[in-house]
Structure prediction request, 66 residues.
Amino acid sequence: FTKVTTGRSPMIAIRVTTLKPSVVIMHGPRRTDPIAKKLAELERIPMGISRLKTPEEIVERLKDIK
Prediction:
C-alpha cells in the first residue's frame, strides 16, 4: 500500500475481504497504528513499513529475496 499514513485503513480493508495477502508492506508511514498492528496479528499477516523512495524499489528488493 502506498501513501499510507498509519496503516489502519489498509488493514481494515484486508480484514473484511476473503482474499488474504501473504504479507503487507506499507510505503510511507513513520509508525503504524496500534489497531493496524493488532489486525495484522489477528489475521496472521506479517506487516512491514518501507521507507524506500519508490514502490518500484520495494518490488525489486522483494524479488531478490529467496
About this structure: The first strand starts at residue 24 and ends at 27. The beta strands are 24-27, 47-50.
